[in-house]
């Protein structure tokens, strides 16, 4: 299994294909393999780089600490390891927030990106929901499904739930103000479901207004992460079209 020891943990990743580098970042409590539900086969013309983010899947997290800013540093270290100075990227929720940090920390690192179910900050109702995260409330079926994805034992899963609960009291990590968003140079497509139960669609418009020359696709009847199932093929077509180059 390809891994890299970086920033105090072991990151699992897969790098496949030939062509322009395409970074795929999964959502919270997800794994890199989730992208197979969107891209059953790797897109032609790309070298696809798919990590399990810190503490997820096959990656470890001995410190049990997680910030999106640190996640971006982890991803940057992986790209350095692979000799990739500049990438195109798609991020879903947690992965999108990681991309926002990556794109604001280094304007030249990300050429183009797709942000799915992103948010510039955590709204109060989401903080309240995250504060209630408790692994002891998971059903046995949920435990079984999570154990199949996160391979380092039940403590890893409990740490992921603690991570999410900790976001409720974090205010300086996900804080993408208009002046900060204005520094992004990557060509950006924002994808958001109009029925997202966590981040109201207005938050997508805030990102759209803040990121220069960004495009916005609001998915009708879409929830959080509206890129799977019946929407997967359309999302793949639109996302890859965006990454290929600007449209007139």
User: How many individual domains?
Assistant: 1
Helix content: 25-40%
What would CATH call the homologous superfamily? Alpha/Beta hydrolase fold, catalytic domain
Structural class based on helices, strands and sheet pairing: alpha/beta
Q: What's the quaternary structure here? A: single chain
Helix-strand pattern: EEEEHEHEHHHHEHEH
Q: What is the CATH level 1 assignment?
A: Alpha Beta
**What is the architecture at the second tier of CATH?**
3-Layer(aba) Sandwich
Biggest pleated-sheet summary: 8 strands, mixed
Main-sheet strand order equals: 1-2-4-3-5-6-7-8
Mean pLDDT: 97
Total helical elements: 8
C-alpha Rg (nearest Å): 17 Å
Give the termini separation: 42 Å
Number of strands: 8
Here the CATH topology equals Rossmann fold
Strand content: 15-25%
Shape: globular
Low-confidence stretches: none
């Amino acid at each position: 299994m390809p891994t890299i020891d970086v920033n105090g943990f072991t990151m699992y990743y897969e790098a496949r294909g030939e062509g322009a580098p395409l970074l795929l970042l999964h959502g919270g409590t997800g794994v890199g393999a989730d992208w197979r539900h969107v891209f059953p086969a790797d897109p032609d013309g790309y070298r696809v780089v798919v990590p399990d983010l810190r503490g997820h899947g096959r990656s470890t997290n001995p410190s049990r600490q997680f910030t999106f800013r640190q996640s971006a540093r982890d991803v940057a270290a992986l790209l350095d390891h692979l000799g990739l100075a500049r990438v195109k990227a798609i991020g879903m929720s947690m992965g999108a927030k990681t991309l926002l940090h990556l794109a604001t920390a280094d304007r030249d690192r990300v050429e183009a990106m797709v942000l799915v179910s992103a948010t510039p900050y955590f709204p109060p109702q989401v903080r309240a929901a995250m504060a209630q995260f408790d692994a002891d409330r998971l059903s046995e079926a949920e435990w079984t499904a999570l154990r199949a994805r996160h391979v380092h034992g039940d403590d890893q899963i409990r740490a992921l739930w603690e991570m999410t609960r900790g976001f409720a009291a974090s205010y300086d990590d996900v804080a993408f103000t208009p002046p900060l968003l204005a520094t992004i140079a990557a060509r950006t497509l924002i994808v958001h479901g109009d029925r997202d139960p966590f981040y109201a669609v207005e938050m997508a418009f805030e990102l759209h207004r803040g990121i220069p020359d960004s495009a916005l696709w609001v998915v009708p009847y879409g929830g959080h992460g509206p890129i799977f199932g019946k929407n997967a093929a359309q999302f793949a077509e639109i996302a890859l079209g965006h990454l290929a180059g600007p449209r007139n």
